[in-house]
Every structure is written in structure tokens, then in C-alpha cells.
């Protein structure tokens, strides 16, 4: 693990990168990283997250700035800008049931190819997916999700890269940190001069 400046961390993220962004309606989302992505003018990003928050909050800042090409999320209902861009076909949106999304992320972090779930059988979720039967029960094969970068927020971080989360701010952050090639962590505690930290998974 090494500590670097916020601007340098974001500068390493190229246009077109796939990002996992922690948070649940902005809680646990690394807001300074969102702000810096907008400031540096990133474009054509793919974001994997629980939701797109709201305008001016968390991932909503990236949506409003036109930084996203594609979103994989379980909920976009509180961000009218996401909905508008999707309807105008400016933004691709893949909606995934929340439990399935979590398991697809976990599978990516554990080196699995995917997971089996009965969720979505007989609905639009099933469209384009492989369906199998095991002991008389139908399942969908949901492929694992991985990303180039994970942007996560923690309350504390030690110099080995171990993170401590505050209450519900934990949400998707630990799973996303283990799933991506590189993880940028924003730590809220004021005691350290370091504001962003990276840990490269070998």
C-alpha cells in the first residue's frame, strides 16, 4: 500500500475505465473522489454501484457531469437525471436485483465465474441469460462482476491498508475493495495526512 494525493489517484483513472463505487444513496460513497473525477473531466466511464444517489450527491455528480457511459445498479429511482439520460439513450443502464448485484460482486472478488440464483426467473431480468435446472428448481446464471478500480470510503485505515467502516457506511465497500484490480480508499479520519490510499491486488 502507498499513500498518494487525491488528484494523483484520480489522474491514474483513464477515460473508459470501469469503476466500482461504494455507498448506499451516497452513504459510504467517497465524495472527494467523485468531485475530483468531475474536476478532471473523466468521460465514458462504466460504474458498478448500488445506485446513482441523487443529483449533487455521490455518483449523481458523475451522472450530471455526463461522465458515465454505462451504469450497473440495483436502483436509479431517486435520480431523475439518470432516468432522463437513460430514456434519451445517452446512458446505458443495467438494473440488477440488489442481492444478485452483491453476489456478482462477491463472486468477482473470490475468483468465481458467477452465481446461481432463482431471483428474476420469469421476469425481464431473465432476458438474455442462461437458465438451468438443479434438482427440479430453475436458476439463472449471473456472471461475476469486476472492475479496473474500486472507489471506497472508510472511517479508518492503517498503513497495511486494513479498513474500518462506520456503521451503515460499510455497505458495499468491503466487497468492492476486494473485487477490483486497484482500489482507491478515502479515509474520513483527520489524523492522517494521507487522503487517498491504494492497494494493488496481485
Q: What would you note in describing this structure?
A:
- The chain is globular.
- α5 (98-110) packs parallel to α6.
- It has a single domain, classed as Glutaconate Coenzyme A-transferase (3-Layer(aba) Sandwich).
- By secondary structure, the protein is of the alpha/beta class.
- 24% of the residues lie in helices and 30% in strands.
- α4 links the parallel β4 and β5 (92-95).
- An 8-stranded mixed beta sheet has the order 1-13-12-9-2-3-4-5, with helices on both faces.
- The model is unreliable at 190-202 (pLDDT under 50).
- The longest helix has 13 residues, at 98-110.
Secondary-structure-based class equals alpha/beta
Relevant CATH superfamily: Glutaconate Coenzyme A-transferase
Q: What share of the residues lie within helices? A: 10-25%
Sheet-strand content, in percent, reads 25-35%
CATH class: Alpha Beta
Structure summary, number of beta strands = 13
Defining key terms:
13 strands; 202 residues; single chain; alpha/beta; three-stranded antiparallel β-sheet; eight-stranded mixed β-sheet; globular; disordered C terminus; Glutaconate Coenzyme A-transferase; 6 helices
Condensed summary:
The protein has about 200 residues and is of the alpha/beta class. It contains six helices and 13 strands. It has an eight-stranded mixed sheet, with helices on both faces.
Task: Describe how the helices and strands are arranged.
Layout (H helix, E strand, L loop, with lengths): L1 E3 L1 H6 L6 E4 L9 H9 L5 E4 L10 H6 L3 E6 L6 H8 L4 E4 L2 H13 L3 E4 L13 E4 L2 E7 L3 E8 L1 E2 L5 E2 L8 H7 E8 L8 E5 L2
Parallel strand pairs: 2-3, 2-9, 3-4, 4-5, 9-12
Antiparallel strand pairs: 1-13, 6-8, 7-8, 10-11, 12-13
Helix pairs in contact: 5-6
Amino acid at each position: 500500500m502507498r499513500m498518494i494525493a487525491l488528484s494523483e489517484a484520480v489522474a491514474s483513472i483513464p477515460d473508459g475505465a470501469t469503476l466500482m463505487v461504494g455507498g448506499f444513496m451516497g452513504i459510504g460513497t467517497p465524495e472527494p473522489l467523485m468531485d475530483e473525477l468531475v474536476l478532471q473531466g473523466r468521460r465514458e466511464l462504466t460504474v458498478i454501484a448500488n445506485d446513482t444517489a441523487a443529483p449533487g450527491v455521490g455518483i449523481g455528480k458523475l451522472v450530471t457531469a455526463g461522465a458515465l457511459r454505462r451504469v450497473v445498479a440495483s436502483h436509479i429511482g431517486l435520480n431523475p437525471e439518470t432516468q432522463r439520460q437513460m430514456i434519451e439513450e445517452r446512458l446505458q443502464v443495467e438494473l440488477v436485483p440488489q442481492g444478485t448485484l452483491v453476489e456478482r460482486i462477491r463472486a468477482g472478488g473470490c475468483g468465481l465465474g458467477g452465481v446461481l440464483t432463482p431471483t428474476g426467473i420469469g421476469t425481464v431480468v431473465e432476458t438474455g441469460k442462461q437458465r438451468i435446472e438443479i434438482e427440479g428448481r430453475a436458476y439463472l446464471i449471473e456472471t461475476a462482476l469486476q472492475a479496473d478500480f474500486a472507489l471506497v470510503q472508510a472511517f479508518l485505515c492503517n498503513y497495511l491498508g486494513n479498513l474500518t467502516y462506520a456503521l451503515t457506511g460499510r455497505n458495499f465497500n468491503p466487497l468492492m475493495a476486494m473485487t477490483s484490480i486497484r482500489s482507491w480508499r478515502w479515509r474520513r479520519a483527520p489524523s492522517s495526512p494521507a487522503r487517498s490510499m491504494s492497494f494493488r491486488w496481485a
